[in-house]
Design brief:
Blueprint (H helix, E strand, L loop, with lengths): L3 E6 L17 H11 L3 E3 L6 E2 L2 E8 L2 E4 L33 E4 L11 E6 L2 E6 H4 L3 E6 L7 H11 L1 H6 L2 E7 L3 H10 L9 E4 L4 H5 L3 E2 L4 E2 L1 E6 L5 E7 L7 H16 L27
Parallel strand pairs: 9-10, 10-11
Antiparallel strand pairs: 1-4, 2-4, 3-4, 5-6, 7-8, 7-11, 9-14, 12-13, 14-15
Length: 291
């Protein structure tokens, strides 16, 4: 059952496949909704239920719930409006919104979008597509930018653990919004980055960065987001940290190992600080209250 998203606007809009009955200024919103949302949300024609002087538009989606629009809406408050894939971020083109609450749902279980990105690896440029990550474990390691400060320290840390990732059948992909040419220049210039033998993905169009919801719109950069992807191409673990805090590749390796274990042993779970070979738990009625 999809969660229902309640949107309140001063105009009555048809967001289904029919033509939009709208104020002219709302047409841009309709187009952006169609472009950005069609593959991730199912749009249904609103039921036009009137509450005071507002019309409610019912949109059924799979990832987000937005509620609590206030009224009245004045012409002087117009802003820009569009929806981002998966995230449903709303701005307006002549529709002012007052969002009381945005309830963010987990990305766990989300399937990675189709993509085709250039990468730099071992002195070469290589194209990487979604099909390349299927059938094996992957780590997507987003970072803000090349030629910065915290980034080379954590990428070096990841490079020093790369052989251990490969031993457990996990490929590593670092990702930033730089081009693959910039990746090469950084690799040539930095002693730390020269240690990298994993894929350095280039996402200058922000395709993958937006899909993983780590794109910083105001800066054109990625957050420090770390994602573990299973062989089916679905997110099983992730974290996003502040830009001024570096990450720990050793802990990331442990979490990949734990994710692999529970993937293979569906009736067992890994307790805190679990290491390969350590004791696991089997949830059961008998175990309730015993820990």
């Amino acid at each position: 059952m999809y969660p229902v998203i309640f949107l309140e606007f001063p105009y009555f809009l048809f967001l289904a496949s029919k033509s939009l009955h709208h104020h002219n200024d709302v047409s841009i919103l309709h187009k952006k909704l169609q472009m950005k949302v069609h593959s991730h949300l199912q749009l249904f024609e609103p039921k036009n239920k009137k509450y005071g002087n507002s019309s409610y538009i019912y949109i059924v989606g799979s990832l987000r719930i937005i509620s609590g629009f206030k009224n009245p809406i004045t012409n002087s408050a117009y802003e820009r409006c569009y929806f981002c894939l998966n995230k449903i971020t709303i701005f307006t083109d002549n529709i002012k919104k007052y969002i009381k609450e945005i309830i963010t749902m987990s990305l766990i279980g989300k399937e990675v979008c189709d993509f085709s990105l250039q990468s730099f690896i071992k002195g070469e440029f290589k194209e990487v597509k979604k099909k390349d990550i299927l059938g094996k474990w992957s780590v997507f390691f987003f970072y803000p930018a090349d030629f910065t400060f915290v980034c080379p320290t954590e990428l070096e840390d990841l490079a020093e653990k790369y052989e251990e990732f490969k031993k457990i059948g996990c490929e590593v992909y670092s990702v930033s919004c730089d081009t693959h040419f910039v990746h090469k220049a950084w690799h040539d210039a930095s002693e730390r980055i020269k240690k990298i033998e994993y894929y350095m993905l280039a996402d200058p169009t922000h395709t993958v960065t937006k899909d993983f919801e780590v794109y910083i719109e105001a800066d054109g950069l990625a957050e420090r987001g770390t994602f573990i992807i299973n062989p089916e191409g679905k997110i099983v673990a992730y974290e996003v940290t502040a830009g001024n805090v570096g990450r720990n590749a050793e802990e990331l390796l442990r979490r990949v190992q734990a994710s692999q274990f529970v993937h293979e042993h569906g009736d067992e779970v890994c307790p805190a600080k679990w290491q390969p070979g350590g004791e696991t738990l089997k949830p059961s009625l008998e175990l309730v209250g015993m820990l």
